[in-house]
Structures are given as C-alpha cells and as structure tokens.
C-alpha cells in the first residue's frame, strides 16, 4: 500500500489547523481508511488533546528519531476507531529536534501501511514549517475569511509552490460565518478563493460546537447533528476522491436572514398593536 | 433620464442629512486592501523599491517638465481585473525647447561616460540618494543580477536588503516561481 501524505498548514496560528487535522483524520477513519496523524508542532503539541489521547502517549516523534523506540511503538491508537493513529509531538523539545530528512523518512515508512498520513504543521514559515512539508506530496491550506489569515495563506501558497515535492494544494476556508457574509460584513468564500487563486477543498462554518467538542476531546465529525461536522465529513469525502458538492451556507443564511427580518417586523407590529 | 435626475436629487438630500449615500461594505474594503497587499507581497515591491522607482521617474520626467517633486504620487490601484501603477504628477510649468535640449544634452554626456564605465555612473547615482547605505546595498545586488529577469532582480534585491544577515534561505530564492504562476493564471 502506498498512502497519501497530506500536510495541513496555514501560516497564521489559531485558524484551526489542528482542529482540521483531528476532524479530517477522524472522518477518513470513520469511512474505513487507515489514517495516521503526525503532530510536528514540537514544544506546542495539541493534537493529542483534541483527540482525547493526551493520557495515552508513551513515546513521541523525538523518541522515534533518537531511536529510543520503534516507529510502530510510538503510534497511539484512537479510543474509538482502530483505523486511526497518532504520532505525537514532544512537548519538552523544540523544532530543531527533528530534521526535514528524518520527517521525510518517517512519512515514507508510514505511508507503506496507512492510506493517509496527515501532517499537522506548526504556525509560521520557519524550520517547523519546512520540516512538516518535507515528507508530504499534497497540502491543505487552512484559512479564515479574515485579512491576516488570507495574507498569511498567500505567503504559504508561495512557499508550497517553491517546494517540488508538493504536487497539489487546496484551500480550506474555516470558521466561515455565512450570516456575516450574506450581510456583506465579511469576505465571501468566492472572494477569498479569487484573492488566493487556489482550488477550494471545502468550507467549514463557525460552530460553537467545536469548543465543546474540544473540551471533551472528541472531534466534532462524530456529532451527526453538527453543521461543522457535516462539512468536515464532506471534506473527507472529497479527499477520498468522491464528488460531494460544497454546501452553500451563504444561500441558507440569506434565506434565514430574510425569515428573521420578516418575523422581527411581525413581532414589532404585534407590539405596536 | 428623468429617473436618474430624481435619484441624484434623492441621494443629495440624503447626503445633506449626513447619511452616506454609498456606504462601502466593510468586506469590500477588506478585499481591496488585501488585493493591494497581496500584490505587494507577491512582487516584493518594498517601500524602498517604490521609493527608488519614484526617484528615477522624477529624474526622467524632470528633463521635460518642471514638476512638484514633493506632491508626486505613485501608487498601485486596482482597475477591475488589472493592477495599475498610477502616477500623478503635478506640473509646475512646462520646460521650453532650449531647456529640454540642454537637459537631453547633459543626459547624453552622462550616457557617453556610462559607456566607458558602467560602474562609475551607478556610483554617482548613489551619492545623490538620501539613504546611501540602503541604496548601495541594493545597487550592489542588482548589478550582479542585471542579466536576469527584471522580476527576479527586484525580488532578490529587496529580500536581501532586508535580510542581509540570513544567507541562502531556500524559500527566498525560489519565490519568483509562484509569481510566475499567479501571472500566467490571470
């Protein structure tokens, strides 16, 4: 088996790289794929928290690199899904503890026995980014419809294009607020896509459920009723090569804005009477 | 036609009451600001480079007209799909024929000496600039890369002047690639 190695990156911090990683990974595993996630954010690891695996980590990627354990030993299995594994980052070391070459080798090794290797990239464009990208052949650039995130995403796209090993990259628009976009208070998905001239992989709406699901250490894709969960599951389908249309949140929002307006007028009238 | 007039009057009345008739959505502001900033990021036209471009334009135009150097504006603007370099030149007065000829002659003489030794004129240019050290660094870079594409020249010159201490960063040297793509896609 030769799996795909996909790096999930963004440039700017706090746009939802790790959340995206946890959810796409979980969704792919739910669909029956064998998935391993690598946290390369040495010193600031968080992927374990989002998956609720923080108490199960024995060895980290640094232990693998420094040959204190075998690669297989360091993989932590997910609580629910046996198809899903995590290779955790070391919390006590910095980005220089693993080199590009070492990460490349780990990815090469893992893709022999997994369908998907998802690499969680640290924020920034320094060595940590270069390391994370080294073993990947595809990239997902996470951004939000905010100026700073879009600008940083553009920079990241430039750096990805400069790396020959990255064959393709796609954009994931996170924390999208359809109501604000419909009211023209926030950039629309089309505008972000046009600015960055990149292919869109999916749109994830802002969802307060992300916070509660993180609190519990359970990715939101497991919640059948969540809108963000549904959007992430669709993204996973697209990654597997299935043609799933992107949900038009803006149209839905426009409609519900109208309904709200109508009812608020109605209520006002009622009060006046 | 009549409707237009009424609409205009209506808008003017609204304007009188301090109401913005054409309220620009904040997201449009964001999109426009981003367009400019991404353009600058992609081409690496740093403020220093823009300053240099401005200076050279003044030098060139001064041969033909007397212009208000302080008020000259040079900015990027978005015109639909196209990025445009907008140059606004307040002209104090047009130079007469004799003045232009004199300026051109002076220029020619300069040009002749340039043929003899390229570097000398390059250096004399530097001396006239305000921030000498910065310019010197840029000129030094650019001289060595003059045979290359203009785009690359600008990119690397500016990058290096900012990050003189960091050498051989792989992502820096390969950046022009991306810009090539962006352009070709557009």
Secondary-structure map:
The complex is a heterodimer of chains A (273) and B (186).
Chain A lengths: L3 E6 L7 H14 L4 E5 L7 H5 L9 H5 L5 H4 E3 L6 E4 L12 H11 L5 E5 L6 H8 L3 E6 L3 H15 L6 E9 L1 H5 L6 H8 L3 E6 L3 H8 L10 H13 L9 H24 L1
Parallel strand pairs in A: 1-5, 1-6, 2-4, 2-5, 6-7, 7-8
Antiparallel strand pairs in A: 3-4
Helix pairs in contact in A: 1-11, 5-6
Chain B lengths: L1 H15 L9 H18 L3 H16 L2 E3 L5 E7 L2 E7 L2 E4 L2 H20 L1 H11 L3 H13 L5 H13 L7 H4 L2 H10 L1
Antiparallel strand pairs in B: 1-4, 2-3
Question: How would you sum up this structure in a few lines?
Answer:
Chain A is of the alpha/beta class and 273 residues long. Chain A has helices at residues 17-30, 47-51, 61-65, 71-74, 100-110, 127-134, 147-161, 178-182, 189-196, 209-216, 227-239, 249-272, and strands spanning 4-9, 35-39, 75-77, 84-87, 116-120, 138-143, 168-176, 200-205.
CATH topology of chain A: Rossmann fold
Number of distinct beta strands of chain A: 8
Number of beta strands of chain B: 4
Low-confidence spans of chain B: 118-186
Biggest β-sheet: strands ordered side by side in the sheet of chain A: 3-4-2-5-1-6-7-8
Radius of gyration of chain A: 20 Å
Shape of chain B: flat
Count every helix of chain B, treating DSSP H or I runs of 4 or more residues as helices: 9
- Total count of domains of chain A: 1
- Which structural class is indicated by helix and strand composition of chain A? alpha/beta
Number of helices of chain A: 12
For the record, the CATH class of chain A is Alpha Beta
Low-confidence stretches of chain A are none
Protein chain pair with the most extensive contact, residues per chain:
A-B, 21 and 24 residues
Radius of gyration of chain B: 23 Å
Termini of chain B, distance in Å? 38 Å
Query: What is the average per-residue confidence, as pLDDT of chain B, rounded to a whole number?
Result: 64
